[in-house]
Amino acid sequence: MRIAIVDDSPGDRDQLLECLNRYFSDTKGTLETTCFTDAAAFLKDYHYSFDFIILDIDMPGLSGIEAAKVLREKDPHVTLMFVTNMPQYAIEAYSVEAMDYMLKPVSYPDFCLKMKKAERYIRRNADAPVKIQTADGPLMRQASQILYVESRQHYLYYHTEGEVLKVRGKLSAAEESLLPYHFARAGESYLVNLSRVSGFDGSDVIAGGDRIPVSRRCRTSFLSAYTRYAGGF
User: Most exposed residue of 2, 73, 214, 219, measured as fewest CB within 10 angstroms of its CB?
Assistant: First the structure.
């Protein structure tokens, strides 16, 4: 896992590094860390290669919350967690879609719980190229680009950002290939990317601005899948 620590306090950075090294030693994982002493330097050098960012809220110059707002414009998906000794500001973490926050001084048991949650979020945000076999030949699209798949008269319609790809096939086969990337059945004819759901309206789910009906038979399982996804499980 590639992790960035952004904290102006040398002691707090060292404590986080100690917790990270201990956690990855205990879990037999591999770790690569990069430390930044201020938010401006972090944003200047940001290169989209981190899996997880630990960001201090209270820093001189650009605060952690301000930095996170800029970060979200660059990278809306990276998993982010705040650390702070000012709990009154921690609620702002959710305005920038942070996974969670930890209070300083960080305790190792609490750190372990947060890291396990972070790993779930990182797996949830994983992306991969998907091969779509069209009549004109195979096309590759990232799983995250697919809003939903629709089945009509022996054909599948992959609704992506800016295009609809038509292929011959069964929805069950598409479901099997897309299941690792957080897709869920909304009915007999629809498979929806949970990461692209923007809301619900009555019995419909909204994805990419389109309304997709959720059947009565699938409603409970679809809502359960979406709840697990939103909770990072």
Answer: 73
